[in-house]
Design brief:
The structure is a homodimer of 385-residue chains. Helices cover 53% and strands 11% of the residues of chain A. In chain A, helix 7 (109-118) links the parallel strand 3 and strand 4. In chain A, helix 8 (135-156) crosses helix 14 (289-298) and helix 9 runs parallel beside helix 11 (211-230). The first copy, chain A, is of the alpha/beta class. The first copy, chain A, has 17 helices and eight strands. Chains A and B meet through helix 7, helix 8 and helix 16 of A and helix 7, helix 8 and helix 16 of B.
Chain lengths: 385, 385
Amino acid sequence: MEIIKDLPEIFDEFEDKKKQSFLKVKEYKEKQIPIIGAYCSFFPREIAVAMGAIPVGLCSSANETVELAETVLPKNVCPLIKSSYGYAISDRCPYFHFADLVVGETTCDGKKKMYELMSEFKEVYVMELPNTQSEGGLRFWREEIIRFKEFLEEYFQVVITENDIRRAIVSQNKRREALKRFYGLMKLEPVPMSGLELGKVLYGSKYQFGQEEMTKELNELSDRILEEYEKGRQLEKRPRILITGCPMGEDTNKIVEAIENNGGVVVGFENCTGANAVERMVDEDDPDVYGAIARKYFSIGCAIMTPNNNRIHLLGEMIDDYHADGVVEMILSGCHSVEMESISVKNFVNEEKHLPYLAVVTDYSKGDVGQLNTRLAAFVEMIRK
Amino acid sequence: MEIIKDLPEIFDEFEDKKKQSFLKVKEYKEKQIPIIGAYCSFFPREIAVAMGAIPVGLCSSANETVELAETVLPKNVCPLIKSSYGYAISDRCPYFHFADLVVGETTCDGKKKMYELMSEFKEVYVMELPNTQSEGGLRFWREEIIRFKEFLEEYFQVVITENDIRRAIVSQNKRREALKRFYGLMKLEPVPMSGLELGKVLYGSKYQFGQEEMTKELNELSDRILEEYEKGRQLEKRPRILITGCPMGEDTNKIVEAIENNGGVVVGFENCTGANAVERMVDEDDPDVYGAIARKYFSIGCAIMTPNNNRIHLLGEMIDDYHADGVVEMILSGCHSVEMESISVKNFVNEEKHLPYLAVVTDYSKGDVGQLNTRLAAFVEMIRK
């Protein structure tokens, strides 16, 4: 007989997936299943999945390794880079430890150089991502995806067929559809769960390796949430906050907590934790699998792109679909791309969407929790009035 | 009768060229000669010169506009970006004011976003520079150069022929040869001038518009220096410092002063103020003019490239050719690319060249002059011992 779990218990289980999967990744390793680690949403997972490898997100969101990284890296680079590099040099991330290969992309200035430094002690393959979402850039990126496939074939001595890739596209789309359906539940008014619960699942799902298992779990969770919603599990009406900016998770949950402990609710993440990386599917009907994958990833509205119209477009859509009452931008201290772009994002939110906007520059430490509470409480209060 | 000027007077005249040319740029404007402004060494001057336009370096190296820029931009972006943007919004740079067009390149995170912000009040054209000096990247950059040419033809309603470009290549190579010959004089032991004098000419020459005039002036200056050198105008023997890192000029001359006031001499600039942008010529014999221009600029060893082997290569060559006793890296505070890369540069200088290396993180203010003096005096003293 299956024990029926409470929803909060399920949310916590998702949050724990990162730790639970430590052993799994070791098992894969023992079975000689290749493990390919990456840090970024631009990583075309389909190619790794097509060869039968396990794609895994590498540790990058906790403060614990920042100090160590600062003994090598400049203090003023963003905490995401410092945390990632600190995990790598201290060998404290099991996913990094067991990864046969780390795949990087030429995204921001700091990451480009971080991959160079990492390549001194780990096998690192860097994909060159163009800076502009032009037709020429897209062609270039498609070539990069083919080059990556060829590298994997050579490096792991395997053959990756277009049919393998096609199957991977279908499985990854299912995964994305399940995620999209799940976070899309926050369009409901009132919301069926808190933003912290939403975040636990989104973050945890990065560490659920079985693709079909995860899709199934997520869909069951969504069904369950809807079922309980109809029975009355609904949060009281609160100012609805959409989050944008840098990726979140673990130590930056303090932002979500500061919003929700002060009367607001986070209805969505437009950033790489949420919709930005998931929203668009790979076209399954495109006879050109590489072009289809290239177009999906190349459309990600990351601040390293210039101009970054896709971000503004998605942000606008989400503001409408999620009935946002305000936008909070989380900027990791030292992330020039996002911080500089926040000037235009603020203008868009204020002037075109006529909504309040607040930018919060922070890092992974707990030092600013008090200040965050004050600022975000005032922001939520202003919206309520 | 021509008055024979002293060398120091000539050096000062070069330093003053930026101011002297304010009027000239206005004259060009009145004669309806197009003026094309740029900030970066990657800007392919030849294409602008080929259409009969005046390429001009835009103001970016003084502290005076930083504070104003900080009312809009994040404080932690580098002073070069803040200075540039501050000049632009305050209309205090005559070159920016009179420029018909500003050409940017997708170099670092901050500049990419700066160009977006500038394009709100100025005509800005951004060239997409790849992140990796690969064959594919080179092909892409060659296409970007052609696209730029086509944009200029459309925008200014002109026709730019390959012969125009070929002539521009020859004139720009002459300019570069003259610069190279000039700064190459610092290979002499003892040196024929101070690093401050060297810097005055290098910086000032960016504002000398007549290409042939400048080539002539520079060559005459080099002749004159050699002539006086033989007559005994030589600096006493001092620790020879090679500068690398971010571009310098105006308010960062404090670094050169701190080295030279404390007994050292700056023998060269490996950065964009000196050799990095000049050293390599455009191949005049290449039947493919676009490919030839692409290869020259694409080889620039800028820290935004990953990996940046060309920088290490040039640095190594200059250490040998200029008989450097030590390397000082000037890092503009907030320049993640250069600051992160400094880890590998230090290793190279220390371990492969067996020379002392010092990294100095600074900005355009005078706040750290005392500290710079202390640190650089100690560095020079250590070398002397």
